[in-house]
């Protein structure tokens, strides 16, 4: 009986799934499911647009001063629009967290280097 060959490397090929979409996220919220999985939603956060604005018109029909706006007051209203939900095992969530931290570190280092380079160019 032939022995199975031991592979020295592995290649992952990526394709977009039928429902793939790119989403913008400003945050995430979630927690544990009753079955012990990690569930989180990515959301985009933004201020709410007023339902209406009312302006005084000048005699020639141009906008003058704003008279009123729906939703203006002491309370700041922020909408969090859920973009996508993710469910994964705690082990996979941990790996994702490590991966995200490493990408964030790389992005910060690149940003810091670009800022330092820009400052150096401005000095010289």
Overall description:
- The chain has one helix spanning about 90-124; strands at about 25-30, 40-45, 55, 65-70, 80-90.
- Helices cover about 25% and strands about 30% of the residues.
- It contains 1 helix and 5 strands.
- A 3-stranded antiparallel sheet has the order 1-2-5. Strands 3-4 form a two-stranded antiparallel sheet.
- The longest helix is centred in the C-terminal third of the chain and has 34 residues, at about 90-124.
- A hairpin with a 5-residue loop joins strand 3 (about 55) and strand 4 (about 65-70).
- By secondary structure, the protein is of the alpha+beta class.
- It has 2 domains: about 20-90, no CATH class; about 90-124.
Distance between the termini: 72 Å
Number of extended strands? 5
Radius of gyration: 25 Å
Strand order, largest beta sheet? 1-2-5
Uncertain runs:
none
Name the overall outline. Answer: extended
Structural class, from secondary structure content? alpha+beta
Mean pLDDT: 88
In the residues, how many domains can be counted? 2
Largest sheet: 3 strands, antiparallel
Helix run count: 1
Helix and strand string, N-terminal first?
Answer: EEEEEH
Helix share of residues?
25-40%
Percent range for β-strand residues: 25-35%
Entry keywords:
single chain; 124 residues; alpha+beta; 2 domains; 3-stranded antiparallel β-sheet; two-stranded antiparallel sheet; 27% helix; 31% strand; extended
């Amino acid at each position: 009986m032939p022995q199975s060959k031991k592979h020295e490397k592995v290649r992952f090929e990526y394709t977009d799934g039928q429902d793939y979409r790119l989403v913008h996220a400003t945050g995430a919220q979630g927690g544990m499911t009753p079955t012990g999985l990690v569930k989180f939603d990515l959301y985009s956060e933004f201020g709410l647009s007023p339902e209406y604005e009312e302006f005084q018109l000048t005699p020639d029909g141009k906008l003058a001063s704003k008279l009123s706006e729906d939703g203006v007051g002491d309370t700041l209203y922020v909408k969090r629009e859920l973009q996508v939900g993710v469910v994964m095992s705690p082990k996979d969530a941990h790996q994702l967290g490590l991966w995200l931290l490493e990408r964030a570190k790389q992005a910060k280092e690149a940003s810091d280097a670009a800022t330092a380079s820009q400052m150096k160019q401005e000095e010289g």
